[in-house]
Structures are given as structure tokens and as C-alpha cells.
TrEMBL record:
Residues 1-12 have a biased composition (Gly residues). Residues 56-177 form the Beta-hexosaminidase bacterial type N-terminal domain. Residues 1-55 are annotated as: Disordered. Residues 184-509 form the Glycoside hydrolase family 20 catalytic domain. It comes from the Bacteria. This is Family 20 glycosylhydrolase. InterPro entries: Beta_hexosaminidase_sua/sub, GH, GH20_Enzymes, Glyco_hydro_20_cat, Hex-like_dom2, HEX_bac_N. Residues 29-55 have a biased composition (Low complexity). Belongs to the glycosyl hydrolase 20 family. Keywords: Glycosidase, Hydrolase. Coiled coil: none annotated.
């Protein structure tokens, strides 16, 4: 039986959901793990007396469940987690974690006995289902989780954990599950608003239970620079994360199979850097400073930004680095060449007499992409940093994070796709949680995401043609702190629970969900404890 296809429903959002360590609507702490194991009956000798099982109640829903007759797996006082011989080095951490969450023993590499859970890496004929995929078999009072890689096994343990929380048992049968998209995540603007390390760690745990695998940290903007720096300590805000705190966050993320993506946005959104280096602020021909914009005609501008990119590329071990490139204020005026003649002159000197300010901005994007690529990173940038019909073309190896069609030079998503670019969906119509709701933003609801959005809906509510599906790498829910005092970090955590769970469902499986919205919301609240 395939799970994940049919009806839709209606109603609004509720409290935060999905993982341990969060709060309900009244701010009370939620339990960190399923209840303690209790004695349960052994599997019946005659399984035919049981009805066919149903798929486990989990978020995101499993893609495929083959039902079977039997009582399913539930914990007993003798249950333990074991690892298949030869897999202990790779899966020991995953095994210890799920054992602790289920409150049962961990016995290391051993044969699985009655009531046990075994973790294993796929081999031989079992290979080939794709990265992050897993198979979970619940049969004869045992559970076996087999994954294509460590992440796949980990996601199988998330399914087991949630099934036990929601129904007390892991239903009899076989689950075959995999993500539809390789990039699934959350982005947090920690530049405009300081978030504690503990809050970020709680979000990582929440994300892991939802099988999300990327956390973006936008840590530099006009309002603040929030991670300690050795190369330029003068730019760092009073409230910031220490590098030890960041390393602790990174260690937890790695254990949960989450990649943390740093972002230093430039050439705009650099106000915190420019307060320490005012001579680099962009000024018009009339001498008017432009907020957050660095003067990209000055070599010193590139030197400082590149120092920071290299420093944090070394701190963050993950594959990606986000270089921003959005909302450069020089390009928001009617005639950038007349308003900023120093930029126009630099563009023509570097790219020829027909070059314009947008070409200089594109060259800046390409240069910053080269810096992070030399540091071993895959560069990402916002879609409004790529312009059409220029003397310079934006690096086609940079992943485009598409958030808006409202900014300067707005382009439809299909333009990027026709150029062969890889795109990540951060559609501001559905996935932008902007504090204080400025500029006509409204807080997104889980209901709208669940019923209307999928990774092909890149701009507004229109989906791009399916022929471009393979170029859309995934999606990310984004918290922006424009009016930073509008909510506390705890209020934010509660408010994003259902939207984040709905996003997780649709990036894991974009098909119309089997559960309607009311059923999904009830399950999410149940999983929250």
C-alpha cells in the first residue's frame, strides 16, 4: 500500500510540534522521549488473528508501507538496540541515540533477540535505493532498520521513535522510505536578532525528527554580526555566539545528519561590517550613504569580505556557503550609472565600455563564489543577485535560492531553470516567517503549505513545469527578524512548529497527502506530547 495520496482538509495552525524539547501553547516544556517501556505481550503464535496493519503515524508520512498481520513491535523490559556485525563503527551513535530515546538498552554489535531493534547498513542486492533511504521491517516482535547510508538508518530511527510516540507500537509490516528532495531545511536570521546556542540546538533536534537536513544561519546583516571573528573582531556585535558555541552546535548537527550552512550576505546587508569600516560604505554622487551597501569599486571592500568568507569556511565543515547577493541598494535607483559613477567607471574598466553597475555586481558575486569554492564549498546565492542581458553572466555553478519575484530585475523562476541552473525553493509567499509582518508579509500557516505548496511552486502559487523538477533541489522554511522585538525566541519556536512540520512533509513527499489538514495537525500535536 502506498501512503501519501488523496484528500485535503481545512483549518488553521496551532502550537509547535514534532520533536522533544519544545513547548506547548502555554510555554510548558514537552517530554523529551516516548514514555518508559512497560511489559507487553509476546507476539501471538497465530498472526492471522490480527487485522492487516496500517502505516505508522509519523511526520513526514512514510512513502510506502507494506502491511502485515501481527501485533507490531513494542518495548519490553528486555528490549535493546543492537547493531549488525560490521556496522558498529558507522552506526554506534545512531544506535545509542535511539536506545536512549526509547529508554531501552544498547548492546552494541550483537544478534537481535526477541523485542530488539537492529540497525544495519545495506549491502549487496540491498544497495541502490538512493541516499538517505531506508527500509524498516517490523516482524515477529523485532524491528530491523536498514539504510543506504548512515543518514538513511537515522531517518528509520526517527520513524520508529515517532511511531512509538503516536501509537505505542511500530506496526507490523515493511516501510520503504526515501526523500523526494536532497535539500530540506530551515533558515534562521540570527543577525537581526540574537538567538541563544541552546535555542538553535533545540531547533536542530526538532528538525532531525522531521527528517530535515539543512540549517542555514544568516549571521551578518545591517543590525548585527553574530559570530565571533578572529580576522575582524571589530565587526562583531556585543551579543553573539562564541566559536565554542558554534562548534557545539556543529557537533550536534553532525550527529543528527544536519548540515549547517553559513551565510555572509554581500554586497548589500553589510551594515554591521560598515559601522566598523565607514570609509567603505557606498555613497551616491551627491554623497548620500546607502544603508548596508559596500562600495564594490574599492579593493579593500573585497579584501575584508573575503577575509570573513575564508575564516568561516574553515569554521563550518559542511559542503555549502551562502554568499547572499540580494538587495544591493545601488541597483534600486532609476539610473545606477548616473547615481553611482564610481561603480559605473569600475564596471567599464573591468568589463568594457558597455558594462553597467549590474555587471560589476555580477562580477562581485562570481568573485565571492570563487573564494568559497577555493575553500571547498558549494556556493549559494539569492535569486535577485542574478541579472539578465548583462555583459557579465552569473556563475552557473552557484545554486540559486529563489525567494522573490518582487525585487530589482525580478525574473520568473523558469528563466533560471532554462539556463540550466540548480534552484532551492524559499518562496516568500509560503515559506517566509517575517517578524512583525512588515512590507505586506503575513505569518505563514502550516495549512497553506500543506495544502497548496510543493517544491515546484517557486514563485507565488504557480508551479513551474514538471520538466524542471530535477533542477529543484528542495526547499527551506525561513525565519527573518526584520522587527526583531516583535516576538521572543520562545514565541517564535512555538509559532513555527506546524509550518515547519508541513514543509518537512512536502519536501519529503510532494504528493497530495493522505491525511487532511485537521488529521495532520492532530498528529503533529500528538507527536509533540
Amino acid at each position: 500500500m502506498l501512503t501519501g495520496c488523496s484528500g485535503q482538509g481545512a483549518d488553521g495552525d496551532g502550537a509547535a510540534v514534532g520533536a522533544a524539547g519544545r513547548a506547548d501553547d502555554d510555554g510548558k516544556a514537552l517530554p523529551a522521549a516516548p514514555d518508559s517501556p512497560a511489559a507487553s505481550p509476546s507476539p501471538a503464535a497465530d498472526s492471522s488473528s490480527y487485522p492487516l496493519s496500517s502505516a505508522p503515524d509519523v511526520i513526514p508520512a512514510v512513502r510506502e508501507h507494506e502491511p502485515a498481520r501481527g501485533p507490531g513491535w513494542s518495548r519490553t523490559a528486555d528490549s535493546a538496540v543492537v547493531v549488525a556485525p560490521g556496522s558498529e563503527a558507522a552506526l554506534g551513535d545512531e544506535a545509542r541515540l535511539i536506545a536512549g530515546e526509547l529508554k531501552i538498552a544498547y548492546r552494541g554489535a550483537a544478534a537481535a533477540g526477541p523485542g530488539d531493534v537492529q540497525l544495519a547498513l545495506a549491502s549487496g542486492a540491498d544497495k541502490g535505493a538512493g541516499p538517505e533511504s531506508y527500509t524498516l521491517v517490523s516482524r515477529d516482535g523485532k524491528v530491523t532498520v536498514t539504510g543506504q547510508d548512515e543518514a538513511g538508518v537515522f531517518y528509520g530511527t526517527r520513524t520508529l521513535k515517532q511511531a512509538v510516540r503516536s501509537g505505542g507500537v511500530m506496526p507490523e509490516g515493511t516501510v520503504r522510505d526515501r526523500p523526494d528532495r536532497p535539500q530540506r531545511g530551515l533558515m534562521v536570521d540570527i543577525a537581526r536578532k540574537h538567538f541563544t546556542a541552546g535555542w538553535i540546538e533545540d531547533r536542530l533536534r526538532e528538525m532531525a525528527d522531521l527528517k530535515l537536513n539543512q540549517l542555514g544561519l544568516h549571521f551578518s546583516d545591517d543590525q548585527g554580526f553574530r559570530i565571533a571573528s578572529d580576522s575582524h573582531p571589530e565587526v562583531v556585535s556585543a551579543q553573539h555566539l562564541t566559536k565554542d558555541e558554534v562548534r557545539r552546535i556543529l557537533a550536534l548537527a553532525e550527529s543528527l545528519h544536519i548540515t549547517v550552512i553559513p551565510e555572509i550576505d554581500s554586497p548589500g546587508h553589510l551594515g554591521a561590517v560598515l559601522r566598523a569600516h565607514p570609509s567603505l560604505q557606498l555613497r551616491s554622487a551627491a554623497g548620500t550613504p546607502r544603508q548596508g551597501a559596500i562600495d564594490i569599486s574599492k579593493p579593500e571592500s573585497a579584501r575584508i569580505v573575503d577575509d570573513l568568507l575564508r575564516e568561516y569556511a574553515e569554521l563550518f565543515p559542511g559542503r555549502y556557503f551562502h554568499i547572499g547577493a540580494d538587495e544591493y541598494q545601488a541597483l534600486t535607483v532609476g539610473n545606477p550609472q548616473a547615481s553611482y559613477p564610481q561603480l559605473a567607471q569600475a564596471a567599464q574598466q573591468r568589463y568594457g565600455s558597455g558594462a553597467k553597475v549590474k555587471d560589476l555586481a555580477t562580477g562581485w558575486l562570481n568573485d565571492r563564489a570563487a573564494v568559497v569554492r577555493e575553500a571547498g564549498k558549494q556556493p549559494k546565492a539569492w535569486n535577485d543577485g542574478f541579472f539578465r542581458n548583462g555583459a557579465v553572466t552569473g556563475d552557473k555553478g552557484v545554486e540559486v535560492e529563489y525567494w522573490t519575484g518582487k525585487e530589482y530585475g525580478a525574473r520568473q523562476p523558469v528563466e533560471y531553470l532554462r539556463e540550466g541552473r540548480k534552484v532551492v525553493n524559499v518562496n516568500d509567499e509560503y515559506l517566509y516567517y517575517v517578524l512583525g509582518e512588515p512590507n505586506d508579509f503575513t505569518y505563514p500557516t502550516g495549512k497553506r503549505i500543506y495544502e497548496e505548496w510543493n517544491p515546484l511552486v517557486l514563485r507565488g502559487s504557480e508551479a513551474v513545469p514538471k520538466e524542471y523538477s530535477d533542477q529543484i533541489l528542495g526547499g527551506r522554511f525561513a525565519i527573518w527578524c526584520d522587527l526583531s522585538n516583535s516576538q521572543t525566541q520562545d514565541q517564535i519556536a512555538r509559532a513555527i512548529g506546524l509550518p515547519l512540520a508541513a514543509t518537512a512533509q512536502k519536501v519529503w513527499d510532494p504528493r497530495t497527502p493522505e491525511r487532511d489538514w485537521n488529521e495532520f495537525r492532530a498528529l503533529a500535536q500528538k507527536l509533540a506530547g
